[in-house]
Amino acid sequence: MNFEIPNFMLAMPEIFVLGMACFILILDLFLSERSRVVTYLLTQATLVGAFLLSLGLYSSARELTFSDSFVLDPMASVLKLAVYAAVFMVLLYSRRYLRERGMFRGEFFVLGLFGVLGMMVMISAHSLLTIYMGLELLSLSMYAMVAMQRDSRVAAEAAMKYFILGAMASAMLLYGMSMIYGVTGSLELGEVSAAVAGQGSQLILIFGLVFLMVGVAFKLGAVPFHMWVPDVYHGASTAVTLYISTAPKLAAFAMLMRLLVDGLGALQPQWHDILLLLAILSLGIGNVVAIAQTNIKRMLAYSGISHVGFLLLGVLSGSPEGYAAGMFYAIVYVLMGLGGFGMVILMSRAGFEADQLEDYKGLNERSPWFALMMMFLMFSMAGVPPFIGFWAKLSVLQAVVDANMVWLAAVAVLFSVIGAFYYLRLIKLMYFDGPLELSPFRPSPDVALLFSVNALAVLLIGLFPSSLMAICRQAMGL
Amino acid sequence: MESIYNLGLLIVLAPLAGAIVAGLFGGTIGRKGAHSVTTLGVAISFVLSAVVFKQVVIDKVGILNQTVYTWLVSEGIRFEVGFLIDQLTAMMMVVVTFVSLMVHIYTIGYMSHDEENWPAGSRAGTNSYQRFFSYISLFTFSMLVLVMANNFMQLFFGWEAVGLVSYLLIGFWSTRESAVYANLKAFLVNRVGDFGFLLGIGAVLMTFNSLDYSAVFSTAELHKNLTFSIFPGSEWNMMTVIGILLFIGAMGKSAQVPLHVWLPDSMEGPTPISALIHAATMVTAGIFMVARMSPLYELSETALSFILIIGAITALFMGLLGLIQNDIKRVVAYSTLSQLGYMTVALGASAYAAGVFHLMTHAFFKALLFLGAGSVIIAMHHDQDMRNMGGLRKYMPITWITSLIGSLALIGTPFFAGFYSKDSIIMAVGESSIPGSGFAFAAVLAGVFITALYSFRMYFMVFHGKERMDHHTREHLHETPWVVTLPLVLLAIPSVVIGAIFVMDMPFGNFFGEAIYVAAEHDVLATVGESIHGWWGMALHGFLTPAFWLAAGGVFTAWMLHRKGLDIAVVMKERFGFVYKILDNKYWADEIYAKLFAAGGRGLGNGLWKVGDVALIDGLMVNGSARVVGVLSGITRRLQTGYLYHYAFAMIVGLLALFSLFIFR
Hints:
- The structure holds two protein chains of two kinds.
- By secondary structure, chain A is an all-alpha fold.
- Chain A has 20 helices and two strands.
- Chain A has one domain.
- Chain A has a two-stranded antiparallel sheet.
- In chain A, a hairpin with a 4-residue loop joins strand 1 and strand 2 (70-72).
- In chain A, helix 3 runs antiparallel to helix 4 (106-124), helix 9 packs across helix 13 (296-316) and helix 11 runs antiparallel to helix 14.
- By secondary structure, chain B is mostly helical.
- Chain A binds chain B through residues 160-161, 164-165, 168-169, 172, 203, 206-207, 210-211, 213-214, 217-218, 223-225, 227-228, 230-231, 270, 273-274, 277, 285, 288-293, 418, 421, and chain B through 626, 629-630, 632-634, 636-637, 640, 642, 644, 646-648, 650-651, 653-655, 657-659, 661-662.
């Protein structure tokens, strides 16, 4: 048997994160409650280290290792960098929040790191099994994170729903993978791709594709596999919501790209139809139901569903430009999502979750600056120029129009218009309604600074969108 | 060339910098800082403009036509900022910056007690002095952008920018209802003109596919016979359409009948801006524009004839209104309208050079008259009614003598500046043979008599005769401070000499070179010029022309009436009640516009609002669709039951739906 030593260098960031996660897990046992901050700092240091490693490994080449089950290409590098940055911000946002609720424990950070590792594996996976492994690592970490708030009934309920539905989705994904394996005789995506191209669209392959799509759609939270999203976002503590609503979307986007483009590229006409259905349903249900929400976390959950619809529009056009637009959208969505839930964290304090829409009434009178920052974020999510959300929507619509689907672009715009309502409603509450409480608003300085940076980034990148767009296009080989 | 380009940039930007500093940091730098920085900016502009004038006109180093900045290129059409500095531009630059500089200095005195013009504690009244300086510097910037443009887009920018500043300044005392009414009126009436102007630029773009002056003018001849169908079956010559549309813009800006109604009301603004904007510079932008477009206008006799008739009507009928005014500023305002009519008549007769020549001399003597009137107003403690004045000659010698010079220049006394320009126009119209020139000639001649009559009626009422002011005012009567009288003296000098200096070059020589184009068959000035031999001879000959005797008759009539203690307004009211009523109501133009357009517009708006907006758009479409979405949202929301088995079921249904995509296709 021919045994080849894999190129460990390419997986250096993964190895580093794994090692650090294990180290922190053990170290945390010996730390007193007062020095718990060491765990936090080490976790952040790990993310920074991984960031530097991935940055160092960045190259425009595409390299395979571990018997071709691991790939490092520009897309993987960019997405990983975005994941580290997103999780770094999540932890920065949540430090005070966790402390105030007695959740500042080692488990949160260790689970967070394992989740990051799962995402990294998903992003760099190049075989069906690697994908599955990364997915499960991420999912199990997240189930546990949601359940961490053991004394909260909603959190327990959310964790339960998430776990059971997640297990179902996992099972379907695995079933789909087994069918693909059965037809092609390989788990490695390159061989799968070659075999599928040779076989044409057999019914069994299409069945496999549908089952795979269920798994991916579940992870992304696309309609009709979205039912868990509002309940989990709502039930989990805001810090956990912040985590699960942002970085994993990048990993899910990578999974979508690996499975559909790298693996089943030959079935593009088939998955085009599936994505079309999912995208339109997500845009419709997400935007329409968000209007009826009174809880801001649920509202943002539905808003997230509608954003996923947009992301899928980019991918379904089936061109590298479309993939770049989808990737751009995913990164922008993560940035805006961080701001959106970051806003809830900013407003919350011990014993007050600030997750009702009416908690935002008259914010302008209490703090004009943060009202302005929130307005930036809401405008960006609604797709108002010059904020970054506008460019994200524009590039996706451009790709759709280029693929000769003007009607689809029109539908997407129509739903965006409907969606603008609930973003504008929040602005209306902040600026035109009287506040429920008159006490001046004093957020902690670090969160306040981070939130301001986040919101200003939405404006600044929106003013100069070309560099981020160029990165995404480069990642797709354009 | 490079040096002119750099000078041009400095000339434009110096007043802008002054305006920004005074406007944004007025509170910090204080009154003194604000007037120093803006006056300095305009002074720099004036000195450099004089340098440019010397280089371009006297040293003849050539014409600068250069792009400064390309804003965007769309389908091959370039939208640019650029300079075209030729003789016409150089002349305008000097006039604009000189008058502006005089007005800046004058304003220091005129506005020194501005806080008294505001209600106590009003927010708009704080730093109003600095704001005023910021505005007039901004105006200077805008006007320079307008005259230095080398393309239609920049022309339009300058055109709108001067309109904006004019609007801001007419309503400067924004707590006075009449000022707000007047600035709104000016804005709306100018909208009508600008609409035509914009259509004209659009027509230029459509025909020439370029906005650049040189590109348009050089190919204008090729499109001479191009026709254009506005309504099916009616063919219009493209050049006529362009010419008339652009001129409609000029009618708004230069207050020609029937878009003249805003100018008398604009006198609600402080007097310095009446002098600068509503007499010397902005209102002449229309004249400048038509002269600049001479290569286009020369191709359409219809458009020229239209201009000629509009100008003649304005010159005569607006002058008549000046006869019965009692407000000192309004007399000067109607005189401005009438003189703008003269310039327009010159343009219509293809005597562009004479029109622009009159623009220049008028800028000096009319600014002088306005500032003189302002000086009187200061002395009278802001009472503008001439019936309360009289005998001011003794108290205000400098204002008196300079105003007399201004009036003599205005009525066209030989050797004074106004004589040369006005006589050139009258003679040119007399030579012209385009349709309407007979009427125009009669109108401008009659206008001479009227001008002399109302000018000297004003002069006698203000400076001679019984002192009719109340006791308190009389005790405080004295000459105004030097910052006010210095500009009067400095403006009085060109009001006397500028005509004699330039008459042989400007209308009758080749002063403008390539800047103004006149077709050979229209060149009336050349015909007139054959019989003119030097400024001295022209003035001597001037004593023999009917124009002089008409003017003298006007002055004599005014003097006779004054000596008998009669006022022409009162006489007319008693003897010719019907005529007086027409004039007193200003031909009912305001009433017609208010009833027909303003009320009609509001009625139409109301109707559209109630039926179109409230019922159809708001009610049916916006609120209707919002209600549908709301109901839909309420229903869909129920799908999220919270039961795990419902969620799982939804996933299964989703899976089946995806299968069915492929099975049942």
